[in-house]
Amino acid sequence: MKKLLQGVLALSVVVAAACTPRETTLVVLSTNDMHARIQNFPRLAAAVEACRDTARLVVLADAGDRWTGNAYVDKSPTPGMPVIALMNRLGYDVATFGNHEFDFGQAHLARMIDSMDFKVVCANLESDTCIFPQPASWTIIERGGIRIGVVGVVTNYEGPGHPAGNDANFEGLRFPDPQQAARRCADSLRSKVDVLVLLSHMGDDRDAELLATEHRYDLVIGGHTHKLRDTLIGGTLLTQTGKNLTNVGATTIRLRGKKIAAIDYRIVPLADYAPDSLVRAEVDRYYADPELNRPVGEFARAASGWGVANWMARGVADKTAAEVGFYHVGGVRLDSIPAGGMSTARVYDLEPFDSRIAVMRMTPAQMRRMILTKYNDTENRKESHRIDLISTTPYEIVTNAADSALDVRFPQLREGRMYRVAISDYVFKNYHDLDYVDGAITDIKVADVLLEELEEDSPLEPDNRPHQRIVRP
């Protein structure tokens, strides 16, 4: 009897073990806002290979802004193609759009999509144009019997009504509210998948807004605001890896059967990995461009972020004989410039948008209105509540305790007088509440002005002093 009981108990243990759901581990590797930094792809390739060597189920995803910011990519025969070729080589599975995907126009982006070996999803982009195909809202990826639903959304807050960029790049496209689109897709997809992922190029603040009310996503892979995020909101993991492909995100999801048992996230510095030699050789070929490598001048000492922006504002003013020059912070794509030689490529890294100079006449009152409207912008929060316009003329933004701008003081300008003003064409075409007289966009390219100054006036002495500030009485 005792032996019979022992046998029954042993059989019960075996049956219980057989009925316990098997644990599965899924790893989601993620990038965002790489901005064409292909020089970091050899290390990314090594990190991806190391993960695939140790984990059976791996998904590789990108949350947008794949190009604009590296002349060897942006000035290649097909702009942006080096990034896509490298992403294809690494075996990306899925991506969404960022605002910079549209920098070269819709027709170019449509051709690029045809070259991608991975899925591109975006739930809040509606197209009725003949040159740009309607993207899918989501895709379902299967790994080891696990169904992973991936939804994509892109910001529409800066346009307004479309991602940041020139209005002409978005003609014929509509960008409904991305948060509503994310909720709609969760309604449709949650019951069909085991893991639900949102690829979001809204910004971490907008992602947090969504997750305050939407709890059906398991993971949000974010972008656009260039932050490092590892935050749990309402049971959903909100992540972001910064910018310029310095890190890769690694989300480990453990499932028992088809149910998530645990989820963990790490921001992994790519500097920790030795470069993959084959990918490095491919990147080296892209960098072997004699025209882009041509030295054009030098800086006598390092230029800070202020120094770079001051140089650009002064350059557009001097070239057009303007009394006041403005340059917007978003158009200054280098945080600093070291002392020493400057190549053609580095100038295009600083100004990759093919921007032109606009000139007009404005009174201090009109300048004040432009600055106040930008500072207090409630829609484009990414560019508001900061000094967004660097100028050759000093000014102070006066704010209250709630950080609303009340006034702008120009100590060197005379009220009521008209001044000749130079700005970039992006400000001229896209800033709200812009009031001026006799305004027009010239054929003068900003990058050409910077190249000319380097060639003729080197070594340049940067002005690293801030000439604008925010004050609170």
Summarize the structure.
This protein has 473 residues and is of the alpha/beta class.
The helix tally amounts to: 13
What fraction strand? 25-35%
Tell me the count of domains.
Answer: 2
Helix share bin = 25-40%
Major sheet size, sense and barrel closure: 6 strands, mixed
CATH class of the largest domain: Alpha Beta
Helix/sheet category: alpha/beta
CATH superfamily of the largest domain: Metallo-dependent phosphatases
Strand order of the largest sheet: 4-3-2-1-13-14
The total of beta strands comes to 24
> What's the shape?
globular
CATH fold-level assignment of the largest domain = Purple Acid Phosphatase, chain A, domain 2
Low-confidence stretches: 1-19
- The end-to-end distance, rounded to whole angstroms, is 91 Å
Radius of gyration: 26 Å
CATH architecture of the largest domain: 4-Layer Sandwich
Rounded mean pLDDT is 94
State the assembly state of the protein chains: single chain
